[in-house]
Amino acid sequence: MRPPAPSRSLLPPLGLALALAGCAHPPTGRWYPLADQLCAGRVCYQVGRLGEGWRIAHVEGTAVGFYSARVGGVIEANATCRDDADPAPLKALTHQLLIGYTERRMLAQETVPLAAREALHSVVAARLDGVPIVLDLYVLKKNGCVFDLSFVAPPETRALGAADFARFVAGFVDETHAT
């Protein structure tokens, strides 16, 4: 089984419009696998170590994505940064991640602490091109950036990657330099 196209096709870019308006980072990010860290310009963050079977699918700008054939899912971290802080509330930013999905049904949503900030954690059942999936999303704002951590998988295999995603999120540390 071939991995799907890079996860940006699974998760529409949170800040495409924001990126076009002028991000404060170069287009090329660098992934440091020994540190589980991505750095691009002033943006630098670390995530928790994924388990066996997760392979890097892409590194692009401030995003890094991983694919697991066993799970049939994608785990991704992304940062969208601007010189002026995004005033949109976390619920609106989460809604932007769901653009393009149909038959969306919120399974759970709660505010949780993450990286010394308030994050919105949402679990959503939806369809992408008619195929049922479950999205597990964390969205937070810090240092002039919006960070989103996501896990997208078919409902029947989601449980196989849930512990990996929990570690991925628990290990999130933002080292971005505020503007």
What does this protein look like?
- The termini are far apart.
- This protein has one domain: Protein Transport Mog1p, Chain A, CATH 3.40.1000.10.
- Helix content is 16%, strand content 45%.
- It is of the alpha+beta class.
- The protein is built from 3 helices and 11 strands.
In short:
With 179 residues, the protein is α+β, with helices and mostly antiparallel strands. The protein is built from three helices and eleven strands.
**Quaternary status of these chains?**
single chain
Termini Cα gap: 43 Å
Which stretches are low in confidence, meaning pLDDT under 50 for 5 or more residues running? 1-27
Strand arrangement within the widest β-sheet reads: 4-5-6-10-9-8-7
Q: What percentage of amino acids are in beta strands?
A: over 45%
- What is the total number of structural domains? 1
Over all CA atoms, what is the radius of gyration?
15 Å
Task: Spell out the key features of this protein.
11 strands, 3 helices, about 180 residues, Protein Transport Mog1p, Chain A
List the helices and strands and how they pair.
Elements lengths: L15 H7 L7 E3 L4 E4 L2 E4 L7 E7 L2 E6 L4 E9 L8 H8 L4 E13 L2 E12 L2 E12 L2 E9 L4 H13 L2 E2 L5
Antiparallel strand pairs: 1-2, 2-3, 3-11, 4-5, 5-6, 6-10, 7-8, 8-9, 9-10
